[in-house]
Amino acid sequence: MAMWRAAARQLVDRALGSRAAHTSAGSKKIVGVFYKGWEYADKNPNFVGCVEGALGIRGWLESQGHQYIVTDDKEGPNCELEKHIEDMHVLITTPFHPAYVTAERIKKAKNLELLLTAGIGSDHIDLPAAAAAGLTVAEVTGSNTVSVAEDELLRILILLRNFLPGYQQVVQGEWNVAGIAHRAYDLEGKTVGTVGAGRIGRLLLQRLKPFNCNLLYHDRLQIDPELEKEIGAKFEEDLDAMLPKCDVIVINTPLTEKTRGMFNKERIAKMKKGVIVVNNARGAIMDTQAVADACSSGHIAGYGGDVWFPQPAPKDHPWRYMPNHAMTPHISGTTIDAQLRYAEGVRDMLDRYFKGEDFPVHNYIVKEGQLASQYQ
Amino acid sequence: MAMRRAAQQAARFAMLGPHVPHIAPAARSLHASAGSKKIVGVFYKGGEYADRNPNFVGCAEHALGIRGWLESQGHQYIVTDDKDGPNCELEKHIADAHVLITTPFHPAYVTADRIARAKNLELLLTAGIGSDHVDLPAAAAAGLTVAEVTGSNTVSVAEDQLMRVLVLMRNFLPGHHQAIRGEWDVAGVAHRAYDLEGKTVGTVGAGRIGRLLLQRLRPFNCRLLYHDRLRIDPELEAETGAQFEAELDAMLPKCDVVVLNMPLTEKTRGMFDKERIARMKKGVIIVNNARGAIMDTRAVADACATGHIAGYGGDVWHPQPAPKDHPWRYMPNNAMTPHISGTTIDGQLRYAAGVKDMLERYFKGQDFPVQNYIVKEGKLAGQYQ
């Protein structure tokens, strides 16, 4: 009966050009793809972001009669995810272990209505294909903005203050102050430019303020004048004019067709020699080899971030081995605090979906065939 | 001329016997003699890094950038990194140095014994902040002036403390290790990574550095507490939102993060022992860029091993340089470095300028900026009493 109803609904939806996300009561099949927790899963009851923790919503979903399949196995034609593509209604993905929702997978997913991102950043989904198929795509906007802004400031300090060589000396039994001090600087008085001043960029600027830097920002839109004044940041309309002024550059734009590969060899050359670059946005915004080359030559004095292309980064990704880096796996937005926030945001949107209600408006990435503005 | 005066003094002291504190405080006057002075500086060696950066003035090779200035005035300037043991280069110059410049990043321990032998010595300058490597009571008794470049590294150290709080709270280092080892395991980092936002951060000491730290913490939206002998001024309290905690041992259990911001004195030596660490919350993060000897070395290592301390970071040790087998190198969840936070290039340029300024005033018989004095006319500065 459920299958007949589902089939009828699909005919109607296809005719309407949308897989309306507020249809039918009745049991849904929810699939979630997260990173595996391994031996860490039991160490912290708040570790809801891993497969084993499953966003902490298994009990809530199953008690309402829904089916909840959770896996970390997402790559290749024989993976666990593939087994559930055809009949799942909702797919929950996360940028920290992204399930690539390709046009092909979307085509096969006959029951699929809703794509939820547990976190921020839905570029692992073919958004135009999702829009054309009438899917709704939403993320938990705001869930990790503070986390990422803190993390960006951390990496700026690590690189500018030359922390890592000092730490390496310590664990290797060494002591050589000069080996660190000859290229260690305070952040105070330096010029810091953020490329993008959306939610995360603004939170970063606010945290930078007491450091008494010269703060610049580039974006399509100028920040509200009161906030600009409060933060003390100057608007730079022309990105390529801003770059050479900066001692530190932080990337705070989403990955879109416009921003993919925008920091290539030419644009990196426009930056000051000895620039520090922090990118917690998306790896593919940078030209991978151009960054590695610039770190080797010293044109980039330090590059840090938690994003790579692809993810997980392969063992031989050049950013692992270039000099003066402060890279980690993709973790900045998946602190325990952020996990709790995005788990709650996903739960809230599922609740609204079951009830046929709209989501918070800023959560939508694709709605009724339209992409959110930052992806256009 | 200086040597004859020294010889006369030596003869006078010999009559008094070897263990008498040998000069009345007024006698090694800091306004003494024009004339050529012997200035000795002890700094860390630059080695292969010395030539890479002309602003790298803090190393022995660059000698604070004041060699030309000193020698053109007829003074003698001896600079070395060799400071330990009876046959070291420093020992050769103790007997006749007028001025000794030391630095906390490679500290020459100016013991009572060395002071007793330093017959010409008038002035001890610290290139940086923190003069606990000098036996201050002995210096005071000997009538020496001790001064440091107050303010020269306050911002540097405050930035560095905030960095280490974030490194530990956000569990950065395990993630970095994965990256350089070819691994990828988000869970291995995320299961114990937290935002700083909303946490309770307490600073033990709210002097210059403590206050700068509180200001930098403010936009992180933490709960800020501070303990000190004195309250900070009400405007700054209001600006940072920091709450005064009169009782240190009442503040400690409230804190997710504890930052040390007081000098090493007889009162603070070893004050963070096993008992006091046990009063802190399980899973506390501690950052100490103040002085290593404020902590009980073993108690910290044990607490990191049990996890009572979830993360310990800092750039200070006892002793320095830290020996190869110092336990803090190998304890889990540490964010240690050698003593570097106050010796960024920016910090070096500031303290070099401050030393130069004080030498100039010394040559002219003028006072120093009042906040720079650690020992003056037989008295120790307030924080060391």
Explained architecture:
Chain B: Substrate binds at residues 129, 153. Chain B: Belongs to the D-isomer specific 2-hydroxyacid dehydrogenase family. FDH subfamily. Chain B: It holds the Pfam family 2-Hacid_dh. Chain B: NAD(+) binds at residues 154, 208-209, 228, 263-267, 289, 315, 339-342. Chain B: One of its GO terms (cellular component) is chloroplast. The complex is a heterodimer of chains A (376) and B (385). Chain A has 376 residues and is of the alpha/beta class. Chain A has 2 domains: 16-139 and 335-371, Rossmann fold (3-Layer(aba) Sandwich), CATH 3.40.50; 144-327, Rossmann fold. Chain A contains 14 helices and 14 strands. Chain A has a 7-stranded mixed beta sheet with strand order 2-1-3-4-5-13-14. In chain A, strands 8-7-6-9-10-11-12 form a 7-stranded parallel beta sheet. In chain A, helix 6 (145-160) packs across helix 9. In chain A, 52% of the residues are buried. The model of chain A has no long low-confidence stretch (mean pLDDT 93). By secondary structure, chain B is of the alpha/beta class. In chain B, 33% of the residues lie in helices and 15% in strands. Chain B has 2 domains: 38-150 and 344-384, NAD(P)-binding Rossmann-like Domain (Rossmann fold), CATH 3.40.50.720; 153-336, NAD(P)-binding Rossmann-like Domain (Rossmann fold, 3-Layer(aba) Sandwich). In chain B, strands 2-1-3-4-5-13-14 form a 7-stranded mixed beta sheet. Chain B has helices spanning 2-16, 67-72, 89-94, 112-117, 136-141, 154-169, 172-180, 186-190, 208-217, 234-240, 248-251, 274-279, 297-306, 345-364, and strands at residues 38-42, 76-80, 99-102, 123-126, 145-148, 200-204, 223-227, 243-244, 257-260, 284-288, 309-314, 334-336, 373-376, 379-380. At the A-B interface, helix 6, helix 7, helix 8, strand 12 and helix 14 of A face helix 6, helix 7, helix 8, strand 12 and helix 14 of B.
